[in-house]
Amino acid sequence: QLQLVESGGGLVQPGGSLRLSCAASGATLNNYAIGWFRQAPGKEREKVSCASRRGNVDYVKDRFTISRDNAKNTVYLQMNSLRPDDSAVYYCAASSTGICMGTFNYWGQGTQVIVSS
Fold this sequence. Notes:
Blueprint: E1 3-7, E2 10-12, E3 18-25, E4 33-39, E5 46-51, E6 57-60, E7 64-69, E8 74-79, E9 88-95, E10 106-107, E11 111-115
Parallel strand pairs: 2-11
Antiparallel strand pairs: 1-3, 3-8, 4-5, 4-9, 5-6, 7-8, 9-10, 9-11
């Protein structure tokens, strides 16, 4: 059973950067499409980035970069030029379909990002 654990969130000033990590166990991440999502209080969850099983970056929000380290079974989300409206709980998720348009059936617990001065 695939398990995902996010880390790297925290408090950052506007204009700063953070790199979130999504470490997998129980299965090999490169068999899945991996997406990053976020949800702010009172708002719907939105996708911010996704990479398919083949490694194609299917979608990425401006200022964000998704990458994989297959040796570490980890996916990263590099976030630059952060703004207060980027504050949210960030989740990584995996789709066993291998494509970013598929259903994401494995989710991490989330990591909080707060952008504030």
